[in-house]
Design goal:
By secondary structure, this protein is mainly alpha-helical. The chain contains seven helices and five strands.
Length: about 180
């Protein structure tokens, strides 16, 4: 899994470099579905790596905070490679980093709403198997409960308490696809 996440992120960066300057990865025609990369003797697309291998063969929704699309709203690129021995710790660290950022998670107590990155909306079903085992949180559906249970592990104690009480709406932030050129 670590190898594939590193490959995905490297090929994403390669795509950006090969098409620079660009304002967004979405401006690169076929970047996810057509452009193929050589990985262990096979020619694979980014979509194939993500959806046909990582999401299908591993029950690890944490990959969604590790895969990088080079956009402002995507999770940050790690400054080190993912490794098999440290993968669990690295995915936890990625989740911490992403969920302390207003792009990944924020609570609007005034309006009784919890905002998550659109990534959680797109891949919410991936969280249900591991994080959907507890009873549904008041006012939330199964998928929203699973996402909240995942986030609960990584947010501060005040936010954890708020998340478990329920009675709020889960909303998803607009995704900024602008190139993250940091």
């Amino acid at each position: 899994m670590a190898f594939l996440v590193n490959a995905y992120n490297s090929f994403t960066l390669e795509s950006i470099i090969d098409n620079y300057p660009t304002k967004s990865i979405r401006n690169i025609i076929g970047v996810w579905k057509i452009r193929k990369f050589d990985i262990v003797g096979e020619k694979l697309t980014l979509d194939h790596i993500e959806h046909q291998i990582l999401r299908k063969e591993f029950n690890e929704p944490g990959i969604h905070v590790a895969l990088v699309c080079a956009a402002i709203s995507c999770p940050p690129l790690r400054r080190e490679a993912f490794t098999g021995n440290q993968l669990e710790q690295q995915l936890n660290d990625q989740a911490n980093q992403f969920l302390i950022n207003n792009q990944g998670f924020r609570i609007d107590r005034e309006n009784n709403a919890v905002y998550f990155s659109s990534i959680f909306k797109w891949f919410g079903e991936d969280y249900k198997k591991t994080y959907g085992q507890e009873p549904t949180i008041d006012g939330l559906n199964e998928t929203e409960t699973a996402i909240v249970n995942y986030a609960h592990k990584y947010v501060n104690p005040d936010d954890q308490k708020y998340l478990k009480q329920g009675g709020y709406q889960v909303k998803y932030s607009n995704y900024d696809w602008s190139l993250n050129v940091q």
